[in-house]
């Protein structure tokens, strides 16, 4: 049975790969895509989402614009230095012009209509800041029963990227992230930097993608700025497909190995702001009682078959 999926996104090069992965997978019913501020501003992320879906021949998928800023405090910075000024290495205009208009009811309106209409649990894959998801859960708690799980890309166990402690998506709106990861009881899978960096792909992988189809060639053409950034970060020629790793788990539950851990989000204004604090102590050491699990437990992705995951993503993108 196809996975019913909604993607919440801030495209972004890795978001473009993630959207394409879902859009081209025959075992996915992509119900909708919602945009959020993040790598670039909301107008650009929304336009990029529409164009990526058009590239994949999926103008049937509705797209709605969501939050343009965080819940409380201004976004510290965007990620144009990684993704390019338009989010797609300055090449968004090379993608086809979308035929579909943005949904008039906005992201929350689209979430509500899709979840209300769903006759089985829906997976939500937030791969940008968690602002839209926090608003949805706060405003429509009755719809939580329609959500099978939330599979999000964000956070870090032992590292950050925007700061030494914080990953970009969480750092962009820590208050929203805390609402989703700590205060709510919807099943969550957190796919952190620690794992996504293990799943980096090299230029040989990108060459296979580019040679396989016009869609693959178009996705590869979006990577120059991203590749240059990760050449500095990794120390070799490759890119990290953060968001595609999370969407792979949303599509194929269990492709990532997870462990249950309580997670806290640092919402202070010190050097740890935006950090995800993953409590890896044994339950007995957390004062929860023998064998108990904290109510705010999150399934944290910790491992995968790296080569197998790379082949999974490449295979779906080159069908």
TrEMBL record:
In the record, biological process GO terms are: purine nucleoside catabolic process
Task: Give the InterPro entries listed for this entry.
Answer: Inosine/uridine_hydrolase_dom, IUNH, Ribo_hydro-like
MF terms from GO for this chain are: purine nucleosidase activity
Q: Which GO terms describe its cellular component?
A: cytosol
Q: Where is the Inosine/uridine-preferring nucleoside hydrolase domain?
A: 5-307
Iron as a keyword? no
Q: Which SUPFAM superfamilies match?
A: Nucleoside hydrolase
The answer to keyword Transmembrane applying to this record is no
Task: Write down what this protein is called.
Answer: Nucleoside hydrolase
Which species is this record about? Amycolatopsis acidicola
